[in-house]
Amino acid sequence: MPSMADITVKKNDGVTDILYVQKVPSSGDNVEAYWRSDAATAAYAGLKPEFRMATKWNQAKTARRCNIVGVYPSVAVDSTTTVSTAIGKVIAEVSFIIPQMVPQGDIDEAVSQISNLINSALIRSSLKAGFAPT
Questions:
Q1: Is the dihedral of CA 119, 125, 130, 134 positive or negative?
Q2: Per-residue pLDDT tens for 18-45?
């Protein structure tokens, strides 16, 4: 089982690193592990980007479900009151179902290929545009 750790990813410029700081490790099934981008300029923690992951058995205990949620708020500051608010949030929800009777090599390959597909230039471009490739 992997140990909780900080996660470093690239910003949209492809050069600058952003650190998602480990906040709360999962304490067991269906309990989220939680990371937050503390370097974000938002005025308070509730307006900073966050990433969560929880895992659990399916009902038959033949597969593990891995649920991932990423939230990236867009923040505006009222010039009169200086109060910061989220004017919108980009939310990503991804769920993997990992059958436990499948050989580990196949699980490894499937997870690598699917996560790399999501990270491909075409899919990133489509997500940014809000439209599937035509």
A1: negative
A2: 999 999 999 999 999 999 999 988 888 9
| Sequence-separated (6 or more) residues with CB below 8 Å from residue 61 | 100
The model carries a pTM of 0.88
Is there a contact between 65 and 32 (Cβ–Cβ < 8 Å)? no
H helical segments located in 23-118: 104-118
Alpha helices for 67-132 (secondary structure H) = 104-118, 121-129
Residue 67 contacts residue 53 (beta carbons within 8 Å): yes
Distance, in Å, from the CA atom of 61 to the CA atom of 98, rounded to the nearest integer, reads 11
Token code pair at residue 17: 């690193």
